[in-house]
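A reminder from the course coordinator: this example appears on the midterm review sheet, so study it carefully.

Given structure:
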């Protein structure tokens, strides 16, 4: 008489445990792919690194005396009113910060100034699927005025860092910028004139799958001043971003890939079902 091979109940129990682990990993993987970070960007001016170097052009070294100093931070987006903060010094600091959370996306914006730093940062995360239209801009600015004594050149230098990252399947872009400008104006009729010089670093990153740009260095501006001329310095960090389209409109692929753990889970489930259908071993007594 034929007796089916007995099933090793311990093996079946162990197999079921493995199957539960695979199911947990699969669900975790699915949830991780349910949202995506579309855009992140940062821009920083290290104001503590600012140097003003006088250069002798034959009349000795020029000097400067500071007069006014001010800071400003601001932000706005298409569905929310703008925010701004200002200060009449370089030490008080300013801050504008907002996080917009909906069922379809989270947009974080933050711009600030402090004694040592001008900083702007953005982050846009969205749930997969559906149409999304969102744009925003934000920035921080520091300005100051001064008067120059003596003829000569003043050299302004400051450290910057910028980055712009897109990992998007939707059409969109982000522009990150660090900027330094110096201007002159004359109140002396015998040496009348005005001039503006600027230095900036801009990163433009267009959504096309995963793409990351980063840069750092020194912004440099030099201008000649006559004795008694006034000058103005402005430093800025700002970010402009937008996303507009359905998933798949950015060139980075549209569908969310099925995790490989899903197929392993299916195969394991099939094996367990086959074991369940085997006849039970007969007791021999």
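Designed residues:
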């Amino acid at each position: 008489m034929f007796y089916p091979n007995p099933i090793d109940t311990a093996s079946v129990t162990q197999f079921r445990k493995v199957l539960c682990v695979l199911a947990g990993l699969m669900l975790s993987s699915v949830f991780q792919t349910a949202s995506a970070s579309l855009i992140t960007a940062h821009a920083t001016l290290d104001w503590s690194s600012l140097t003003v170097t006088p250069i002798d052009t034959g009349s000795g070294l020029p000097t400067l005396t500071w007069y006014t100093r001010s800071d400003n931070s601001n932000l706005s987006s298409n569905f929310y009113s703008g925010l701004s903060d200002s200060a009449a010094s370089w030490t008080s600091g300013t801050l504008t910060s907002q996080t917009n959370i909906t069922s379809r996306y989270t947009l974080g914006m933050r711009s600030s100034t402090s004694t040592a730093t001008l900083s702007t940062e953005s982050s846009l995360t969205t749930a997969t699927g559906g149409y999304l239209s969102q744009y925003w801009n934000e920035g921080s600015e520091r300005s100051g005025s001064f008067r120059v004594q003596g003829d000569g050149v003043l050299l302004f230098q400051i450290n910057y860092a910028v980055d712009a990252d897109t990992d998007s399947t939707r059409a969109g872009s982000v522009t990150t910028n660090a900027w330094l400008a110096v201007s002159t104006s004359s109140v002396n009729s015998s040496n009348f004139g005005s001039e503006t010089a600027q230095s900036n670093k801009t990163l433009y990153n267009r959504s096309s799958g995963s793409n990351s740009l980063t840069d750092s260095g020194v912004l440099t501006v030099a201008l000649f001043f006559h004795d008694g001329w006034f000058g103005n310095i402005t430093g800025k960090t700002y970010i402009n971003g937008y996303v507009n389209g359905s998933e798949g409109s950015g060139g980075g692929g549209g569908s969310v890939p099925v995790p490989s753990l899903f197929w392993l889970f299916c195969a394991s489930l099939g094996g367990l079902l086959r074991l369940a259908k085997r006849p039970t071993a007969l007791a021999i007594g």
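Helices lie at 9-32, 260-277. The chain has two helices and twelve strands.
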